[in-house]
């Protein structure tokens, strides 16, 4: 995913269909410009040489929103797998990507 910054505006530009689906799920969870919008706040530190992951907390979620699982849909016919137990499953374009071991399954490249 490409990230562009211009003053106080940040753009997230997906570079493949998987990232497009993930960005859409984040957009919907953040408020989609309708009703109460949410706020992203950084958690901890970001040190790329130690751990190349940046974490953010979504502030302003109701209890129901916080517990809700994101609805990620397959951008194309593909196989998905669980990072924890290595289970593999086939999903068709537009179907919900299933959860396994408490997390959404990952699309195989």
3D shape: globular
Number of strands: 9
Backbone CA Rg: 15 Å
For the record, give the distance between the C-alpha atoms at the N and C termini, rounded to a whole number.
Answer: 16 Å
Percent strand: 25-35%
**How many helical stretches?**
2
Instruction: Give me the secondary-structure category.
Output: alpha+beta
Strand order of the largest sheet: 6-5-9
Q: Give a quick account of the main beta sheet: strands, pairing sense, barrel closure.
A: 3 strands, antiparallel
**Uncertain residue ranges:** none
Summarize the helix and strand pattern as letters: EEHEEHEEEEE
Give the averaged pLDDT, no decimals: 86
Helix content: 10-25%
Quaternary structure annotation: single chain
Protein name: Desulfoferrodoxin
Organism: Eubacterium limosum
What's this model, at a glance?
The chain has 109 residues and is of the alpha+beta class. It has helices at 17-30, 63-67; strands at 2-6, 9-13, 39-43, 55-59, 78-81, 88-91, 99-100, 103-104, 106-107.
Verbal overview:
With 109 residues, the chain is α+β, with helices and mostly antiparallel strands. The protein has helices at 17-30, 63-67, and strands spanning 2-6, 9-13, 39-43, 55-59, 78-81, 88-91, 99-100, 103-104, 106-107. Strand 7 and strand 8 form a beta hairpin. The protein is globular. The mean pLDDT is 86. The longest helix has 14 residues, at 17-30.
